Amino acid sequence: MELKRVVVTGLGTVSPLGNDVATTWANAKKGVSGAGPITLFDASAFKTQFACEVKDFDPSQYLDRKEARKCDRYTQLAVAASEEAIKDAGFDFEKENTDRIGVIFSSGIGGIKSFEDEVGNYFLHQDMGPKFNPFFIPKMIADIAAGFISMRHGLRGPNFGTVSACASSTHSALVAFDLIRLGKATAIVTGGSEAPITISGTGGFNALTALSTRNDSPQTASRPFSASRDGFVMGEGAACLVLEELEHALARGAKIYAEVVGGGMSADAYHLTASHPEGLGAKIVMKAALEDAQMKPEDIDYINVHGTSTPVGDPSELIAIKEIFGDHAYKLNISSTKSMTGHLLGAAGALETLFCTLAVQDDVIPPTINHEDGDEDEAIDYKLNLTFNKAQERTVNAALSNTFGFGGHNACIIVKKYKK
């Protein structure tokens, strides 16, 4: 069976760097930090009092008031990102067979704020008996963003969400890629959304000692590969890509950003929350992605690393890169855009795949910000080009994105310049 080629024809995002793709990408290239004091709740009693929030988000721009009340913030963000991506792709759904267009959209946590609100309301008013919002369950569950997007546009193809913690939306993109190249769908709206900046989200990750506590300098707190890194910075937002079968995209005259050429999946099988110290699962997943794409290590120009700014995770990923890429590891660019966006958990993979797609299109590498001279860790190989502090222009024929999730879930996707 000859596999179909799959291309990216639409992009959308609502991120800590901007509420659309153009603003987000411009700020990423400038090295802007999206971090600041938490405004979504009173965090004054918490060890971590800052995050990378989406700014000035107005759900009424995308949803009427009645619809918005049925949605958790994570679904509202997902709708916003998907609307931009679908518009960007230029579909006229009245002319399409929407039975073959699907939505695979992820969240690692789902509607955590809705859960907090309903359970908190119960305990506050339990003397009156249990009274729950009838939309509590659909607001909370992690698949509902995918369902909501499909209903808005009448898309009746494959429809679900994958849940694999921080690897969730990369897994979604890989499943979408496979379904299209196997001929089981014509196009799929795929991505991820997360709104975890809540009392329990922040408190829970604080209890794990996973978050940075650099409250005196939020904008410099996410500092991957620096000796002074002390944990990740929580982020929220959504990102969406429209993946489409190449011949269908050409037939309707669609704009093509890049081609998706391969992906890999693996497990660390090691620890609930920590990556394997020698990057075992990361090695497996990158090797699998290269084999799937039928590419050699030297074909890759840029790696958007998982790079969360944690003491254990950062060096283990670089160990894996050096083993898989050998001498070429010192010739490619590596960067962690989480230094700017924070960690969007289940939406991270989609946003970082979007960045890889734009890097391929524009031949520019977004930076890893917040590295200071002399702030070096003996576990990090600084001979690698970690693209510190400033974007770099170079030809980017192919880019690879890594995402690793709690539970040892690893996913990797490769995009390259589209050529006929």
Brief summary of the model shown:
By secondary structure, this protein is of the alpha/beta class.
How would you portray this structure in words?
The structure is a single chain. Helix content is 32%, strand content 18%. The mean pLDDT is 96. It starts with 5 loop residues before the first strand and ends with a strand. A hairpin with a 3-residue loop joins strand 13 and strand 14 (409-416). It is globular, with a radius of gyration of 20 Å. It is α/β, with parallel strands linked by helices and 420 residues long. It has a single domain (6-416), classed as Thiolase/Chalcone synthase (Peroxisomal Thiolase, Chain A, domain 1), CATH 3.40.47.10. The strands form three sheets. It has a ten-stranded mixed sheet, with helices on both faces. Strands 2-3 form a two-stranded antiparallel ribbon. It contains 13 helices and 14 strands.
Number of domains: 1
Strand order of the largest sheet: 5-4-6-7-1-8-14-13-9-10
Gyration radius (Cα, Å) is 20 Å
* % residues in beta strands: 15-25%
Major beta sheet summary: 10 strands, mixed
Layout of SSEs?
Elements (H helix, E strand, L loop, with lengths): L5 E9 L6 H10 L5 E2 L12 E2 L13 H5 L3 H17 L11 E6 L5 H13 L11 H5 L3 H10 L5 E2 L7 H14 L5 E8 L4 H9 L29 E9 H6 L6 E10 L12 H14 L8 E3 L8 H13 L7 E3 L2 H4 L6 H15 L1 E2 L26 E2 L4 E8 L3 E8 L4
Parallel strand pairs: 4-5, 4-6, 9-10, 9-13
Antiparallel strand pairs: 1-7, 1-8, 2-3, 6-7, 8-14, 11-12, 13-14
Helix pairs in contact: 3-6, 7-13, 10-11
